[in-house]
Amino acid sequence: MTISSLAGWIELDGKRLDPDAIETILRTSPEQVLHFGGEFFLTWNGCSARDHFGIMEGTGQKGMLVCNGEMKGEINPSPMEMSLEEAIVTAVKLRSDEGIVALSGGVDSALVAYLAQRECVAVGIEGSHDLKQARHAAETLGLPCTYVTITEDEIASALPEVVAAIPKKDPVNTGIALTLYFIARWAGEHGYRRIITGQGADELFGGYTRYLETTTLEADLERDFAGLEGQARRDQAVAGLHGAYLSMPYLDVRVVRAAHAIPAMEKVKDGRRKIPLRTVAERYIPRDLAGYEKKAMQYGSGIWTTLRKLARKNGYKTSMQDYIDYISRVENGH
Hints:
334 residues, alpha/beta, Rossmann fold, 6-stranded antiparallel beta sheet, 5-stranded parallel beta sheet, 15 helices, 11 strands
């Protein structure tokens, strides 16, 4: 058995597998593929396998083994049970042998950055909230960090490429994708393929402000978690423009399982959000970082304000959606 292609990385029961080990498994015990963990899209001898949550892009459904067009089974890793803390530490360790950490200064990325101990990158408009908070976090944690200041002209230049790449072309998805675009651009320019991020923490632990007011928290969390597949598709499409991919330790099977075992009411209460994650974070990073309430990346980076400004400059004073639709039409030659 010879691997045709492998995007991402694979583990089995907590052990990272190199290409030789993968080929040995494919040759001697191919049934083990159904227990592969990690973030991967693997092809060999007419077969393909994609990771359980579909973090890595690839043909076919997430979490499926397909051979010659026929479904052969589900990719369903079953690592040993762990506490939330053990799960997060393990998930980050498995991903931190290479790459950079996208740091915005909130608890999600700050905890990952501390555990990974890798170079960090923060992006934003000059003077933006995220650049300031990321600098504070990196200096507090003693981590190396590059601060990438982006301009209005750079955003205008990147916008057509980003809009063309993302599946859902609306203002929120465009704003998030633009932020990730500049992180991925820096990574690609400096020879990095893996970008370790904090994606998924809000949906797992109740990070959005709207969770404070809802009367259907459990259902909201379930719905938003289900939407992460679409977010991953957006994020990987943008990262792929620069030959990079996003790695998401909070969407490790161990972390998801541990998080889902915690009742929703323990995640958001008494005006606080992401309580279980902050509790774990306080054991590793200072309390001010663990408890920090950060803005969403499109706002904190200043990109949302710049996107709105560009829409107005181009005659779309009341609708950013109309401006994005215009960009999409131009990109498609209409």
